[in-house]
Amino acid sequence: MTGAAVPREQGSPDAAPLVRLTDVGKSYGSVIALRGVSLEADAGEVTCVLGDNGAGKSTLIKIIAGLHRHDSGTYEVQGEEVAFASPRDALTRGIATVYQDLAVVPLMPVWRNFFLGSEKRKSFGRMDIDFMRRTTHSELAEMGIDLRDVDQPIGTLSGGERQCVAIARAVHFGARALILDEPTAALGVKQAGVVLRYIVQARERGLAVVFITHNPHHAYPVGDRFLILNRGRSLGYHTKEEITREELTALMAGGAELEQLAHELDAAASGGAVAKELAREAKDLGVADS
Amino acid sequence: MTQAVAEPPLKGPGADERLERQSALRRLLGRPELGALLGAVALFVFFSVVADAFLETSSFSTVLYASSTFGIMAVGVSLLMIGGEFDLSAGVMVTSSALVAALVSYQLTLNVWAGVVISLAVTLALGMLNGILYTRTGLPSFIITLATFFMLAGLNLGVTKAITGNVASDSVRDMDGFDSARAVFARDVDVAGVNVNVTVFWWLLFVAVATWILLRTRVGNWIFAVGGAAASARAVGVPVARTKIGLFMGVAFCAWFSGMHLVFAFATVQSGEGVGNEFSYIICAVIGGCLLTGGYGSAIGAAIGAFIFGMTNKGIVYAEWNPDWFRFFLGAMLLVATVVNLVVRRRVERSP
C-alpha cells in the first residue's frame, strides 16, 4: 500500500498506525460514493484529505466517524480491524469527529456544550456542575481561548472559537485521533488561521489529526500527508516532501481539468473585457444605439 | 469575542473579575422567566386595584387553584417545548385519561385505584405512541399530535357513548377507594384557615422537580440540546429519540395527573371536555419564556405563565366583568408577553 512509502518518525511502540483505511469502498444503492481509498493517520501527524464537492470527503469522514459502515476494504484502529455501528463506538476507540456545522447547540452555555453527551455526574444523577464549569474554563484556556464567562451561550462565540471549543472538547474526552470536517470552510481568513493554529497544537499534543478541506492553502502548511480525492477515487497520496503546494492545488481540482478551466477563464475574462471595450468605443462614437 | 483568542491566555484573576462585574444584572436579564415575572407583577397590581375581592385570601386560593390545573399540564408541555416539540393532543388526553379511570373502575366494579393505575399505563402508552410516531416518521410533531388529538377526541365521545349510552361517564363517587383517591388528587387542604386545593401543592412539586431535572441533571442537558440542535446532539452521543419519547411521556404523565384530578373532583367525566385546552398549556409555556422553536425556556417560567393564566381567568370574575372577554385578554397577553420576551432577549444579546 501507499502507506509503506511514508517514513514513520514517531517511535510509537506498536508499528500499526492509529487509523488505517485500506482500499475502502462505499456505495449508496447504485451510487458508488467511494472506492479503493487508502489512508493512514498516526499520532503527532496531520493527514489532510482534499477534494472538491462530491469527491467523497464526507463519505470518508462518515466511515471513519462510525456513522456509516464501509462496504469493501478494511478499517483498522491500531492494527485491529473494526466496523463501527455508531459514532459512540468510534469515540470509545478514541476517534472523535468535529463536524463543521454540527459541532454545538448555539443557545446552550459553553460548559453545557462542552460536556454534552458526556456529562460528569455525582450521586442521584446530579451533574457535577462546578467541575464542568472549571474544566471547561481551564481546557479552553489551555487552547488559548480566554472566556469571560463559560455560562454565555456558545452561539455568541465566533465561528473559529466554536470550532476550537469542539476541538478542545474532543481532546479533553480522550480523543487520540481527531477528524475535522472542513473546520475552516465557513470562516474568514483570520478565523481560519486561528483554527489552523489549534490543529498544529493538537498535533503537538500527540494526536492523530485527519483534516478534511477543499482548500489546499489551508492544508499545505499544517499537513504531513495529503490524500486527494476526486469522484470517489484517490487521485494520489503523498507526504509533504513529495509534493509542492502548486502540485497539490493542481491535483486537487483534477489536474488537467483545472488547467483547461484556467484557459477557459482566461479566455472568458479577456474576451469579456475586449467585448466591453469594443462596446464602449462603439457607443462613444455613436455607432451603436444602446 | 474575537479579541479573546488574540490575547494571551495567562490572565486568570482578570477573567474572574470580569465575571463578577458582569454577571449579576446579566444573569437576571438573561433568565427566560423575566418577561413573565414582570407581567405577573403588573397583572397582580392591576387586578388588586380593579377588583376589591381579588386580594382576599380565599379568592387568592381560587386563583392558585385555577393556575394549578393549567400549571400541572404546563410543566410537561414546557419541557416538551424546550425539547423542540408540540403536543396538541395534551388537552383531550386529560379527558381520555380521566375517562379510562372512571369507565374501567365503574364497568368492572373495581376499586378506583385499579382504574387509576390502568389509566396511568394507558396514558403513558399514548404519550409513548406520540413519541414513537414522531421519531419513526420524522413528521412534524404538530401533525402527529394533531392526528392523535382528533382521534382521541373521537374515541372519548364514541367509546363513552357506546358504553354508557351517555356523553358522560357514570359517577364513581360511591366506589371503593374513592375517598382515598380524592384525598390524593382533589382534597382541600387547610392552610391557616384558608382552603387550598391539593393540586396547588402538587403543581409546585412538579415545577420543582422539572426545574431540578432541567438544570441539574444530564437529562435536562439533553432536553435543551435536542430542542436547540437535534443533529448536533445526536452527533455527540445524546439519545435524541429516547429523550423526545420521554418528553411526550412526560406530557402524558401530567395529563394522567390532571385527569385523575377531574375524576376525583367531579366523580363523573364529560367526554367532550379538554378540546382547546392544549393551546392554554402552550400559552402558559410561551408566556413563561419558552421558545416556540425549542432549546430555551424554563419550568418556573411556565408556572408563572400558568399563574398569569389563573389570575386573568379569575380576576375578570372578581372585577365583575363579562367573562366572555377572558379569551381576548389571554390572546392580548400572549402577544405582549412574547414581544416583551423578544425585546428582552435581543437587548441581552446585544449588550457586550
Automatic annotation (TrEMBL), chain A:
The terms under GO molecular function for this entry are:
ATP binding
- Per the database record, which ranges form the ABC transporter domain? 19-256
Q: What InterPro entries does this protein map onto?
A: AAA+_ATPase, ABC_carbohydrate_import_ATPase, ABC_transporter-like_ATP-bd, ABC_transporter-like_CS, P-loop_NTPase
Question: Per the UniProt record, which residue ranges are transmembrane?
Answer: none
Record-linked SUPFAM superfamilies = P-loop containing nucleoside triphosphate hydrolases
Lineage: superkingdom: Bacteria
Signal sequence span is none
Keyword annotations of the record: ATP-binding, Nucleotide-binding
Xref: PANTHER family: CARBOHYDRATE TRANSPORT ATP-BINDING PROTEIN MG119-RELATED, SUGAR ABC TRANSPORTER ATP-BINDING PROTEIN
Which protein is depicted? ATP-binding cassette domain-containing protein
Automatic annotation (TrEMBL), chain B:
| Broad class of where this protein is predominantly found | membrane
CDD domains (UniProt xref): TM_PBP1_transp_AraH_like
Report membrane topology: Multi-pass membrane protein
InterPro entries under this entry? ABC_transp_permease
Enumerate the subcellular locations listed in this protein's record, separating them with semicolons: Cell membrane
Q: Which Pfam families match?
A: BPD_transp_2 (PF02653)
Task: Supply the alphabetized keyword list.
Answer: Cell inner membrane, Cell membrane, Membrane, Sugar transport, Transmembrane, Transmembrane helix, Transport
Source organism, top-level taxon = Bacteria
Q: Which residues cross the membrane?
A: 34-51, 63-81, 88-106, 112-134, 141-159, 194-215, 222-241, 247-269, 281-309, 325-344
Q: Which PANTHER family match?
A: ABC TRANSPORTER PERMEASE PROTEIN YPHD-RELATED-RELATED (PTHR32196), XYLOSE TRANSPORT SYSTEM PERMEASE PROTEIN XYLH (PTHR32196:SF32)
Summarizing the function annotation, the protein's role is: Part of the binding-protein-dependent transport system for D-xylose. Probably responsible for the translocation of the substrate across the membrane.
What is the protein named? Xylose transport system permease protein XylH
Upper lineage is: Bacteria, Bacillati, Actinomycetota, Actinomycetes, Streptosporangiales
